[in-house]
Structure formats: C-alpha cells, structure tokens
Amino acid sequence: MADDMTEQSTFAAPPPDPELQRLEPLLGTWRAEEHTQDSVLGPGVPVASTESFHWLDGGYFLVQTYETVFGDEPAQRGVNYWGYDSEASRFRIIFFSNNGPFTEEGNRYQGEVAGHKLTFEGPARFQYELDDEGRIKLNFDGTVSVAWWLRQENGEWKPWMNNTFTKIEE
User: In the predicted model, what is the mean pLDDT of residues 136-146?
Assistant: First the structure.
C-alpha cells in the first residue's frame, strides 16, 4: 500500500497553463449589438449577443455561454469550452449549440498568438487584440472588440462583422 504522499502526487494535476491568463479580461457577462456584412450567408443583418464567461473549477477551461440572434432568425444558444494545449502551443475551443449537431470540423476552433493579436480559426475566424501584457485588450472605455471573418467559396477569408462588447455584469 502506498503512503499518503505517493497517492497525492499520483493524482495531483499540474497547474493550469499560464497562457490561459490571456483570457482573464473576458470574465463576466457582455452584450453587443452590431450588424453583419453581406457574405456567403446572405445579406447583412442586425446581430445581438449576450455572452458570459467563467472559469471551470480548477482553472483549466474558460466556459462561455451565449445567446446570439441574427436578424429574424431564432436565437442561437450554446456553450464553448476554451482551453490551452501546451504541447501544440495553441488555444482550443470546442462548442455545442442548438444550431445543429456536433461535427469535428464544425464545432472546434484553434487559436494562436501572433504579434499583439489572438486569432482563432474554425468554421469562422475571429480575432482579439492583446494589450502590452499579452492579455485580451480592454478598450479605453472598458469594452472588448472582436473582428470576425467568414470563409468565401474560393477559400479566402472575408470580413464579416466587428463586435464591441460592453460588460453588463462582473
């Protein structure tokens, strides 16, 4: 029988990767009302989104819940799990929503830091600017900006919308 110290160290998890601290400014509940551009999805429409972020116990994953409405379409509701893959040196997001069944390609994003930007690619591309400490940048008024692109039929990314989220709850 192993002593208590051996059993503890066998089951002890390493601390969360420090890269996750880049996401800390997202904590809380945010709201945005914007407009998409014309795209492969059709004409641009108004979009309203409320998104909440919190750490899953242990601090290894950032959990995001959202409700987003595009034009007159039914609300899209879902949950995203944001993590950091230390071996691959990239962020990963897996998400589940009421917008269709899960697929490996359609429900995952990978993110990388380059310069002062954190860019995720998956079914769409989105990007945050980073501050001087390498964390997601808060604008001078406390808002957070996110730029979005959609892939065109020719495979190229085209700007789709810019969101400015205002914090509505800590």
Answer: 98
Q: Which residues have C-beta within 8 Å of that of residue 147, sequence separation ≥ 6?
A: 126, 127, 159, 161, 162
| Residue whose entry in the numeric block shows the structure tokens 């993590």 | 83
- Residue-range domain boundaries for the chain: 4-169
Q: Is 6 helix (H, G, I), strand (E, B) or coil?
A: helix
What's the whole-number mean pLDDT along residues 102-126? 95
Q: What is the enclosing helix (H) or strand (E) of 10?
A: helix 4-11
In sequence order, what are the beta bridge partners of 54?
A: 63
Q: Which helix (H) or strand (E) holds 8?
A: helix 4-11
pTM for this structure?
A: 0.91
Encoded tokens for 158: 């085209």
- For the chain, give the mean pLDDT: 94
CATH 3.40.350.10 describes domain 4-169: no
